[in-house]
Protein backbone atom coordinates (compact mmCIF):
# COMPACT_ATOMS: atom_id res chain seq x y z
CA UNK A 1 0.00 0.00 0.00
CA UNK A 2 2.88 2.40 0.76
CA UNK A 3 4.09 2.12 -2.87
CA UNK A 4 0.57 2.71 -4.17
CA UNK A 5 0.09 5.77 -1.94
CA UNK A 6 3.39 7.24 -3.12
CA UNK A 7 2.45 6.82 -6.80
CA UNK A 8 -1.04 8.28 -6.28
CA UNK A 9 0.28 11.29 -4.36
CA UNK A 10 2.96 11.95 -6.99
CA UNK A 11 0.33 11.90 -9.74
CA UNK A 12 -1.95 14.35 -7.90
CA UNK A 13 0.90 16.71 -7.05
CA UNK A 14 1.84 16.77 -10.73
CA UNK A 15 -1.78 17.66 -11.46
CA UNK A 16 -1.52 20.67 -9.12
CA UNK A 17 -2.97 19.32 -5.86
CA UNK A 18 -0.64 21.34 -3.61
CA UNK A 19 -0.83 21.79 0.19
CA UNK A 20 -4.58 21.42 0.82
CA UNK A 21 -5.76 22.33 4.33
CA UNK A 22 -9.15 20.61 4.49
CA UNK A 23 -10.55 17.40 3.00
CA UNK A 24 -14.31 17.05 2.36
CA UNK A 25 -16.13 13.78 1.63
CA UNK A 26 -19.56 14.31 0.08
CA UNK A 27 -22.37 11.82 0.68
CA UNK A 28 -25.52 10.90 -1.22
CA UNK A 29 -27.21 13.87 -2.89
CA UNK A 30 -24.74 16.37 -1.44
CA UNK A 31 -22.69 17.39 -4.45
CA UNK A 32 -23.69 21.04 -4.85
CA UNK A 33 -21.05 22.43 -2.50
CA UNK A 34 -18.73 22.09 -5.50
CA UNK A 35 -20.69 24.99 -7.06
CA UNK A 36 -19.37 27.17 -4.21
CA UNK A 37 -15.76 26.22 -4.95
CA UNK A 38 -13.21 28.19 -6.86
CA UNK A 39 -12.01 25.09 -8.72
CA UNK A 40 -8.29 24.97 -9.46
CA UNK A 41 -7.94 21.33 -10.59
CA UNK A 42 -10.18 18.30 -10.88
CA UNK A 43 -9.56 14.74 -11.94
CA UNK A 44 -11.81 11.73 -12.42
CA UNK A 45 -11.19 8.83 -10.06
CA UNK A 46 -10.63 6.42 -12.93
CA UNK A 47 -7.65 8.50 -14.08
CA UNK A 48 -5.90 8.40 -10.68
CA UNK A 49 -3.41 5.53 -10.23
CA UNK A 50 -4.59 2.92 -7.68
CA UNK A 51 -7.77 4.88 -6.86
CA UNK A 52 -11.12 3.06 -6.57
CA UNK A 53 -13.99 4.11 -8.85
CA UNK A 54 -17.48 5.05 -7.62
CA UNK A 55 -20.09 2.59 -8.91
CA UNK A 56 -23.24 4.06 -7.30
CA UNK A 57 -25.26 5.98 -9.88
CA UNK A 58 -25.92 9.00 -7.63
CA UNK A 59 -22.27 9.26 -6.55
CA UNK A 60 -20.06 11.13 -9.02
CA UNK A 61 -16.42 10.17 -9.25
CA UNK A 62 -14.17 13.22 -9.08
CA UNK A 63 -11.44 14.55 -6.84
CA UNK A 64 -11.61 18.35 -6.86
CA UNK A 65 -8.98 20.78 -5.61
CA UNK A 66 -9.83 24.42 -5.06
CA UNK A 67 -10.55 27.31 -2.71
CA UNK A 68 -13.52 27.57 -0.36
CA UNK A 69 -13.89 30.51 2.01
CA UNK A 70 -10.21 31.32 1.59
CA UNK A 71 -8.95 27.82 2.41
CA UNK A 72 -7.46 25.26 0.03
CA UNK A 73 -9.63 22.15 0.01
CA UNK A 74 -9.85 18.72 -1.61
CA UNK A 75 -13.40 17.53 -2.22
CA UNK A 76 -14.30 13.91 -2.87
CA UNK A 77 -17.37 14.11 -5.11
CA UNK A 78 -18.48 10.52 -4.64
CA UNK A 79 -17.30 8.05 -2.01
CA UNK A 80 -16.80 4.29 -1.80
CA UNK A 81 -18.73 1.68 0.19
CA UNK A 82 -18.25 -1.89 1.32
CA UNK A 83 -21.50 -2.82 -0.46
CA UNK A 84 -19.91 -1.98 -3.83
CA UNK A 85 -17.53 -4.89 -3.32
CA UNK A 86 -14.59 -2.83 -2.10
CA UNK A 87 -12.44 -3.69 0.89
CA UNK A 88 -12.26 -1.37 3.89
CA UNK A 89 -8.74 -0.49 2.76
CA UNK A 90 -10.13 0.59 -0.65
CA UNK A 91 -12.90 2.61 0.98
CA UNK A 92 -10.42 4.56 3.12
CA UNK A 93 -7.59 4.87 0.59
CA UNK A 94 -8.60 8.45 -0.38
CA UNK A 95 -8.30 9.58 3.26
CA UNK A 96 -4.71 8.37 3.32
CA UNK A 97 -4.03 10.21 0.05
CA UNK A 98 -5.55 13.48 1.29
CA UNK A 99 -3.49 13.26 4.48
CA UNK A 100 -0.27 12.69 2.50
CA UNK A 101 -1.13 15.71 0.33
CA UNK A 102 -1.32 17.82 3.49
CA UNK A 103 -4.83 18.08 4.95
CA UNK A 104 -5.11 18.57 8.72
CA UNK A 105 -8.92 18.48 8.95
CA UNK A 106 -11.44 16.07 7.41
CA UNK A 107 -15.14 16.94 7.10
CA UNK A 108 -17.59 14.19 6.15
CA UNK A 109 -21.23 14.21 5.13
CA UNK A 110 -23.64 11.35 4.59
CA UNK A 111 -27.29 10.44 4.21
CA UNK A 112 -28.74 8.30 6.98
CA UNK A 113 -31.98 7.01 8.44
CA UNK A 114 -33.30 8.40 11.73
CA UNK A 115 -33.53 5.72 14.43
CA UNK A 116 -34.29 8.37 17.05
CA UNK A 117 -37.90 9.22 16.23
CA UNK A 118 -37.53 12.71 17.72
CA UNK A 119 -35.42 13.40 14.63
CA UNK A 120 -37.29 14.07 11.36
CA UNK A 121 -36.36 13.52 7.72
CA UNK A 122 -34.86 16.59 6.08
CA UNK A 123 -33.08 17.57 9.31
CA UNK A 124 -29.36 17.29 10.09
CA UNK A 125 -27.50 15.35 12.78
CA UNK A 126 -24.01 16.17 14.00
CA UNK A 127 -22.24 12.89 14.72
CA UNK A 128 -20.97 12.82 18.30
CA UNK A 129 -19.96 9.13 18.37
CA UNK A 130 -20.45 6.00 16.32
CA UNK A 131 -21.00 2.24 16.40
CA UNK A 132 -19.08 0.16 13.85
CA UNK A 133 -21.32 -2.68 12.63
CA UNK A 134 -19.44 -3.33 9.39
CA UNK A 135 -17.79 -6.47 10.73
CA UNK A 136 -14.15 -5.43 10.49
CA UNK A 137 -11.72 -2.51 10.67
CA UNK A 138 -9.88 -0.57 7.94
CA UNK A 139 -6.79 -0.94 10.18
CA UNK A 140 -6.91 -4.75 10.20
CA UNK A 141 -4.17 -5.49 7.69
CA UNK A 142 -0.49 -6.46 7.69
CA UNK A 143 1.87 -3.50 7.89
CA UNK A 144 -0.66 -0.94 9.15
CA UNK A 145 1.84 0.10 11.83
CA UNK A 146 4.03 1.62 9.09
CA UNK A 147 1.22 4.07 8.26
CA UNK A 148 0.24 5.09 11.79
CA UNK A 149 -0.51 3.78 15.28
CA UNK A 150 -2.01 0.29 14.94
CA UNK A 151 -4.05 0.63 18.15
CA UNK A 152 -5.69 3.93 17.22
CA UNK A 153 -7.44 5.60 20.15
CA UNK A 154 -11.19 6.08 19.55
CA UNK A 155 -12.23 7.58 22.89
CA UNK A 156 -13.18 10.82 21.12
CA UNK A 157 -13.18 10.20 17.36
CA UNK A 158 -15.01 13.44 16.49
CA UNK A 159 -13.25 16.72 17.26
CA UNK A 160 -15.05 18.48 20.14
CA UNK A 161 -13.89 21.95 19.08
CA UNK A 162 -15.17 21.54 15.51
CA UNK A 163 -18.45 20.08 16.77
CA UNK A 164 -18.92 23.11 19.06
CA UNK A 165 -18.32 25.41 16.09
CA UNK A 166 -20.87 23.49 14.02
CA UNK A 167 -23.45 23.87 16.79
CA UNK A 168 -22.78 27.63 17.09
CA UNK A 169 -23.09 28.08 13.30
CA UNK A 170 -26.37 26.13 13.26
CA UNK A 171 -27.78 28.27 16.07
CA UNK A 172 -26.72 31.52 14.37
CA UNK A 173 -28.33 30.44 11.09
CA UNK A 174 -31.52 28.89 12.55
CA UNK A 175 -30.56 25.44 11.30
CA UNK A 176 -31.99 22.45 13.17
CA UNK A 177 -28.92 20.41 14.08
CA UNK A 178 -29.39 17.35 16.27
CA UNK A 179 -26.44 15.58 17.88
CA UNK A 180 -26.24 11.82 18.17
CA UNK A 181 -24.70 8.41 17.57
CA UNK A 182 -24.31 7.03 14.04
CA UNK A 183 -24.33 3.29 13.39
CA UNK A 184 -22.59 2.09 10.24
CA UNK A 185 -23.81 -1.14 8.59
CA UNK A 186 -22.70 -2.93 5.42
CA UNK A 187 -25.86 -2.67 3.28
CA UNK A 188 -26.88 -2.28 0.53
CA UNK A 189 -30.22 -3.67 1.74
CA UNK A 190 -32.13 -1.49 4.18
CA UNK A 191 -32.79 -2.73 7.71
CA UNK A 192 -35.59 -5.00 8.90
CA UNK A 193 -37.99 -3.94 11.65
CA UNK A 194 -36.11 -6.15 14.11
CA UNK A 195 -32.79 -4.57 13.09
CA UNK A 196 -34.17 -1.06 13.64
CA UNK A 197 -35.31 -2.12 17.12
CA UNK A 198 -31.86 -3.56 17.84
CA UNK A 199 -30.15 -0.34 16.68
CA UNK A 200 -32.31 1.71 19.02
CA UNK A 201 -31.53 -0.62 21.95
CA UNK A 202 -27.76 -0.36 21.43
CA UNK A 203 -27.87 3.44 21.37
CA UNK A 204 -27.91 4.49 17.72
CA UNK A 205 -29.71 7.70 16.71
CA UNK A 206 -29.12 7.21 12.97
CA UNK A 207 -27.96 4.45 10.64
CA UNK A 208 -26.08 4.48 7.35
CA UNK A 209 -23.64 2.53 5.19
CA UNK A 210 -20.55 4.74 5.20
CA UNK A 211 -18.44 7.24 7.17
CA UNK A 212 -17.16 5.11 10.07
CA UNK A 213 -14.26 3.54 8.11
CA UNK A 214 -13.07 6.99 6.99
CA UNK A 215 -13.36 8.31 10.56
CA UNK A 216 -11.30 5.41 11.92
CA UNK A 217 -8.51 6.03 9.40
CA UNK A 218 -8.63 9.81 9.99
CA UNK A 219 -8.05 9.14 13.70
CA UNK A 220 -5.31 6.65 12.80
CA UNK A 221 -3.62 9.54 10.92
CA UNK A 222 -4.25 12.09 13.72
CA UNK A 223 -6.51 14.28 11.59
CA UNK A 224 -9.15 16.52 13.15
CA UNK A 225 -12.46 15.12 11.97
CA UNK A 226 -16.17 15.93 12.06
CA UNK A 227 -19.23 14.51 10.29
CA UNK A 228 -22.81 15.56 9.63
CA UNK A 229 -25.68 13.32 8.53
CA UNK A 230 -28.68 14.35 6.47
CA UNK A 231 -31.63 12.39 7.83
CA UNK A 232 -33.40 11.17 4.72
CA UNK A 233 -35.97 8.81 6.24
CA UNK A 234 -37.56 7.91 9.58
CA UNK A 235 -36.97 4.34 10.69
CA UNK A 236 -40.03 3.56 12.78
CA UNK A 237 -40.31 -0.26 13.00
CA UNK A 238 -43.98 -0.03 13.98
CA UNK A 239 -44.88 2.01 10.88
CA UNK A 240 -42.31 0.89 8.35
CA UNK A 241 -42.95 1.61 4.67
CA UNK A 242 -41.02 0.25 1.67
CA UNK A 243 -37.91 2.29 0.88
CA UNK A 244 -38.17 4.94 -1.83
CA UNK A 245 -34.67 5.79 -3.07
CA UNK A 246 -36.00 8.78 -5.04
CA UNK A 247 -37.50 10.23 -1.86
CA UNK A 248 -34.20 9.67 -0.02
CA UNK A 249 -32.34 11.61 -2.73
CA UNK A 250 -35.01 14.34 -2.63
CA UNK A 251 -34.62 14.69 1.16
CA UNK A 252 -30.83 14.93 0.83
CA UNK A 253 -31.29 17.63 -1.83
CA UNK A 254 -33.75 19.54 0.37
CA UNK A 255 -31.31 19.60 3.29
CA UNK A 256 -28.28 20.39 1.14
CA UNK A 257 -28.39 24.23 1.47
CA UNK A 258 -28.20 23.91 5.27
CA UNK A 259 -25.30 21.46 4.99
CA UNK A 260 -23.47 23.85 2.65
CA UNK A 261 -23.98 26.73 5.10
CA UNK A 262 -22.54 24.65 7.95
CA UNK A 263 -19.49 23.55 5.97
CA UNK A 264 -18.75 26.97 4.44
CA UNK A 265 -19.05 28.83 7.74
CA UNK A 266 -16.98 26.25 9.54
CA UNK A 267 -14.18 26.36 6.96
CA UNK A 268 -14.20 30.15 7.14
CA UNK A 269 -13.60 29.89 10.90
CA UNK A 270 -11.03 27.09 10.97
From TrEMBL:
<keyword id="KW-0808">Transferase</keyword>
<comment type="function">
    <text>The purine nucleoside phosphorylases catalyze the phosphorolytic breakdown of the N-glycosidic bond in the beta-(deoxy)ribonucleoside molecules, with the formation of the corresponding free purine bases and pentose-1-phosphate.</text>
</comment>
<protein>
    <recommendedName>
        <fullName>Purine nucleoside phosphorylase</fullName>
        <ecNumber>2.4.2.1</ecNumber>
    </recommendedName>
</protein>
<dbReference type="GO" id="GO:0009116">
    <property type="term" value="P:nucleoside metabolic process"/>
</dbReference>
<dbReference type="Pfam" id="PF01048">
    <property type="entry name" value="PNP_UDP_1"/>
</dbReference>
<dbReference type="InterPro" id="IPR035994">
    <property type="entry name" value="Nucleoside_phosphorylase_sf"/>
</dbReference>
<comment type="pathway">
    <text>Purine metabolism; purine nucleoside salvage.</text>
</comment>
<keyword id="KW-0328">Glycosyltransferase</keyword>
<dbReference type="GO" id="GO:0004731">
    <property type="term" value="F:purine-nucleoside phosphorylase activity"/>
</dbReference>
<dbReference type="InterPro" id="IPR011268">
    <property type="entry name" value="Purine_phosphorylase"/>
</dbReference>
<dbReference type="GO" id="GO:0005737">
    <property type="term" value="C:cytoplasm"/>
</dbReference>
<dbReference type="InterPro" id="IPR000845">
    <property type="entry name" value="Nucleoside_phosphorylase_d"/>
</dbReference>
<comment type="similarity">
    <text>Belongs to the PNP/MTAP phosphorylase family.</text>
</comment>
<dbReference type="InterPro" id="IPR011270">
    <property type="entry name" value="Pur_Nuc_Pase_Ino/Guo-sp"/>
</dbReference>
<feature type="domain" description="Nucleoside phosphorylase">
    <location>
        <begin position="22"/>
        <end position="268"/>
    </location>
</feature>
